[in-house]
Fold:
Amino acid sequence: MTQHCIFCSIMPPYLLKKYAESSDPQVRDRALATIEATERARAIRAALSQTLNLARVGPGVARTKVRRIFDCQGTSDLSRQLVMQENDQPPADVAVREAYDFAGITWDFYNTVFGRNSINDGGMTIVSSVHYSENGQGFDNALWNGQQMIYGDGGEQFGRMTQCLDVVGHELTHGITQFSAGLPYHNQSGALNESMSDVFGVVIRQWHDNQTDPATANWLVGDKLLLNGGALRSMKAPGTANPDDPQPAHMKDYVNLPDNPFGDSGGVHYNSGIPNHAFYLAATAIGKPSWQTAAKIWYITLTQRLKGETDFAKCANETISVARDFFDDATAKKVSQAWIDVGVITQAVGPVASLGMKAIKPSESGKKAAKGTAVAKKAALASTHKRKPAKMSVARH
Structure:
């Protein structure tokens, strides 16, 4: 059955599975509660998937930012208490302020850079619920459920789920994918769905922080979200963000997993590392601030060129075509080389052939990035072997 991305969460299932097998009962119970909530939301998603993508607001709606923040107060009641609306004075609760501010920055980014009017491009109110907890066990996740944002507080292994702008941007971008390309959430189309969210989450943070040089910008997803150090993912060097990061950076390491919840719906959180790395290589080769050229190519591809079931090769060809159509051949060649360097493009056909690129071989910058990734992976592995198990502590909120 086709799985539309109505429920999409930031936390990769391999991390939750690891903690669900912990000998520490507090860590184990919290992870199991998060997994339980995740699977229940997937069931709700399946019921909603036939109707939510049909919800559109007509053209001409005023471009007005509208945010509403609810406090679950440690329950699973998403509308338990409305605590902040547009232009309200910020409360003392840092999670409320972060959810409000980062949703606003995300709205501003899409409106300023792409002219988009909220998540559905029709003035949709951005609703967020903070302090969500599952059966009193907490919730180590942030997610877009097809209608709104939901944030847990973290605590055992993770910090507040509202604390990272790129995480908020990542999840809200799942909503944009829902209302545009509708990429089914499995196999390569699901990995692209995840990758698009990583791309724009990171670019939103770079835009906000004015990181204008892609070569020195921060390419981590969920930087410092893990309390023991590290991030959730790295676009610069997939597989190195934390000691348990299994992401590949090249098609030769593509992870084949079952298309079910136990297999991460065909490895969507694993294999997204490949298109993630392609974007990083394209952005650094182009050299301009990521949001000025590379992100515009990816945004047009997402909202105008992709629709429904697709794969990495289709996405690659469309980004190359967009780069040529909206920019120039030189930019298109740099985008082409990025997809070549991650092993997605292996033949001089389609838009690559039209650019006169007959030699399909890795670039020197691609080789350098691959070498750097390999070194970082070895260092992370060595660090894991030397690390002593840390005593778990209960975080209080």
